[in-house]
Design goal:
It is built from six helices and no strands. It is mainly alpha-helical.
């Protein structure tokens, strides 16, 4: 195998995928065990975690903001696009941040629960907003879209950005 193929196999194993196929030396095998790193190798992990936390806080604040303070939507149903894209970004960021598939799945489930919980909170805590099951559905679909980047080169975008000066 070439150095590039070995590096890709090593990344796949570090990301929590199964043992790489093909003639790879046993020294290259690293299972996603309890000792495997949870986060991807980043120079500034706390910075990137803080960015993700700020993004989540912005979604929470936007979801609970009074309707009169929100900008007008360009067309009917545009809020569904916002829900899908917002949760896709949160989920994709989790994929870029965390190396293990189990951690990514836990983040995805947590984001789905957040989306559902915020719909209930809109009904219970605001007088100008209401719970919409379709919004929760589009939140969940967005999470799935974000998870899908794990199978693309975009999964390492944050690592490349982290190395850039």
């Amino acid at each position: 195998m070439s150095d590039i193929e070995l590096a890709k196999a090593d990344e796949a194993v570090a990301a929590g995928h199964e043992k790489p196929s093909g003639p790879v030396a046993p020294a290259m095998w690293r299972t996603a065990s309890a000792t495997a790193p949870v986060m991807r190798p980043l120079r500034r992990p706390l910075l990137w975690l803080a960015v993700w936390a700020a993004m989540i806080a912005a979604v929470i604040a936007g979801s609970l903001m009074p309707a009169r303070e929100l900008p007008p939507v360009p067309f009917n149903g545009f809020d569904k696009v916002q829900h899908l894209l917002g949760y896709a970004v949160l989920s994709a960021y989790a994929v870029m941040l965390f190396a293990r598939m189990r951690t990514q799945a836990l983040c995805a489930l947590t984001l789905v629960a957040l989306g559902i919980g915020l719909e209930f909170a809109q009904a219970a805590l605001t007088s100008s907003r209401e719970a919409d099951p379709a919004d929760a559905l589009f939140n969940g679909l967005g999470v799935l879209v974000g998870l899908a980047i794990g199978a693309t080169p975009l999964a390492t975008l944050l690592q490349r950005l982290d190395r850039w000066r």
